[in-house]
Amino acid sequence: MSINTTHENINTWLSHLKEDYKVAISVDCVIFGYDNQELKVLLLESNMPPFEGQESLVGDLVRPSETLDDAAQRILEQRTGIINLYLEQVATFSDIDRHPLGRVISTAYYSLIKVQDYAPEVKPDGLKVTWKSIQDINQLAFDHNLILNTCLQMLQRRVREKPIGFSLLPHKFTLKQLQSLYEAILGIKLDKRNFRRKIKNSEILIEHSESQQDVRHRPAKYYSFNKENYNRKLEAGYSFDI
After folding, report:
1. Residue 147 phi, psi dihedral angles, 5° rounding
2. Which one of 110, 115, 182, 189 has the fewest beta carbons within 10 angstroms of its own beta carbon?
3. Strand partners for 126
């Protein structure tokens, strides 16, 4: 647009903009949960044709008065009852035909939580909300399989780069529990010896004198995450890598 454009031309341009660029913005929340050595995701029952009754991610349209971050928190609370959850923005999805009702561009967020700490509620709209294992998910509504897979790839990169997975374990845990957590998130089997050598060499664990009780196998030692040492190493240029 020319710098000399008159107010009349600007108003005309804005009028065409409203007519020709009718685009809705939505938010989809991919909430990963860890429970019983499984990575799960929070799914919602869709009530929109042609996907009625099909599983979908937790999402909705953004209101004109909201930021994307505000909308993500509101939608999550309205749909599931979960409040004040840390969400990280991942990507925007803008395929022209991704939504049956028209042009809708969606921004995806993800979070990783303990399933037992966030029990979803059935809200007034009556839509069913459930935790489902990643391994058991088939076809989701809309393009939500693509969104889910994109967020999962982001999560898998994050847990290799930062020790975010420790927050999903008890304060004291065994190395087997820690390895099971990483295997569930990464979707691969890790070599036991290499994993333990790498995690011990990282010097971010506290080894406790106590071990498991009342187990049939050899009791395993307990460990906990040494957050203070990790932060000190981080300031010195330490790079976490699993």
Report:
1. -65, -45
2. 189
3. none
**pLDDT tens over the chain, length 242 residues:** 444 455 566 566 556 556 667 889 999 999 999 998 999 999 999 988 899 999 999 999 999 999 999 999 999 998 888 998 999 999 999 999 999 888 999 999 999 999 988 877 766 566 788 999 999 999 999 999 999 999 999 999 999 988 888 889 999 999 999 999 999 999 999 999 999 999 988 889 999 998 877 767 778 899 999 999 999 988 888 888 88
Closest CA to 223 of 163, 160, 154, 177: 177
With 0-12 / 13-18 / 19 or more C-beta atoms within 10 angstroms meaning exposed / middle / buried, residue 147 is buried
Domain 163-235 in this protein, CATH class: mainly alpha
Q: What is the C-alpha to C-alpha distance for residues 13 and 9, in angstroms, rounded to an integer?
A: 6
Which secondary structure element, helix H or strand E, spans residue 229, and what is its range?
helix 227-235
Strands 129-133 and 104-114: unpaired
Count CB neighbours of 12 within 10 A: 12
- Domain segments of the chain: what residues? 7-160, 163-235
Cα distances (angstroms) measured from residue 58 to each of 30, 46, 80, 107: 7, 9, 8, 12
Homologous superfamily of 7-160 in CATH? Nucleoside Triphosphate Pyrophosphohydrolase (3.90.79.10)
- Amino acid (1-letter code) at residue 170: P
CA distance to 114, 140, 145, per residue, from 33 (Å): 5, 18, 17
What is the residue whose two structure tokens read 């989809």? Answer: 28
**How far is 141 from 217, CA to CA, in rounded Å?**
45
Q: Taking a C-beta distance cutoff of 8 angstroms, is the pair 164, 158 a contact?
A: yes
